[in-house]
Amino acid sequence: MTDADTIAHLIRRIETLEGEADVRRLQARYMFLCDTPCPEAGVDDDARRIDLIMDLYAEDAVWEGVGEYYDNQFGRLVGRDAIRAHFERFWGPEREPGLVLNAHYLTAEQIRVDGDSAVGQWIHMQPWLYSDGSALLRSSRLNNEFRRIDGVWKIARTRTENVFVAPLPANFADSFPTTSVLMKP
């Protein structure tokens, strides 16, 4: 192998490693912004939160729930406008009971980068607490696609498949924040 070949090979490896790190941060940022209460400093309303989430998506992105449980719950949304409308319904003021806590835990990560595209799989768990005291624990498999657009990684597809949904005892959590101060100065 010539020096030029070695350098080209090392550059490809570095770009792959950087792509994996960028995709990992992108997926984690999405989950972070979806947590309730939102831990992002300066994000005190859901409209701003949704704007930040939408900044993570490609214009032609797809968001879909698949499998026997999620097909009827989430369906398939194509394009940022449709995805935005989904989040607006999710955090809308008419949602009753209101969501008071939701936290995402990611595990079993697998990321594969191929040039300007990538695929990532995770399993995630998420407790949900509602304003009426009801609660549940959700687990899903994620199989997401990412695309580098003008040098910036974006979510091209969010695909989630239910693993399980388990109701938790009413009022099982008696200590949780009403607002996050984690990122506040």
Explained architecture:
- Strands 1, 2, 3, 4, 5, 6 and 7 form a seven-stranded mixed β-sheet that branches.
- Helix content is about 30%, strand content about 40%.
- The longest helix has about 30 residues, at about 5-35.
- It has one domain: Roll (Nuclear Transport Factor 2, Chain: A).
- The model has no long low-confidence stretch (mean pLDDT about 90).
- It is an alpha+beta fold and about 180 residues long.
- α2 runs antiparallel to α4.
Topology:
Blueprint (H helix, E strand, L loop, with lengths): L2 H32 L11 H9 L2 E10 H4 L5 E3 L1 H11 L8 E4 L2 E10 L2 E14 L4 E15 L2 E17 L17
Parallel strand pairs: 1-7
Antiparallel strand pairs: 1-2, 3-5, 4-5, 5-6, 6-7
Helix pairs in contact: 1-2, 2-4
CATH architecture assignment name = Roll
Integer average pLDDT: 92
Count of the separate structural domains = 1
Which spans of ≥5 residues are poorly predicted at pLDDT below 50?
Answer: none
The main β sheet shows up as:
7 strands, mixed
The helix count comes to: 4
Q: Which descriptor suits the 3D outline? A: elongated
Query: What letter string, H or E per element, gives the SSE order?
Result: HHEHEHEEEEE
CATH topology: Nuclear Transport Factor 2, Chain: A
Distance between the termini: 52 Å
Rg measurement, Å? 18 Å
Q: What percent of residues adopt helix (DSSP H or I)?
A: 25-40%
Q: Class by helix and strand content?
A: alpha+beta
Portion in beta strands: 35-45%
- CATH C-level class is Alpha Beta
How many strand elements? 7
Protein name: Ketosteroid isomerase
Domain SnoaL-like: 16-159
Keywords: Isomerase
GO molecular function: isomerase activity
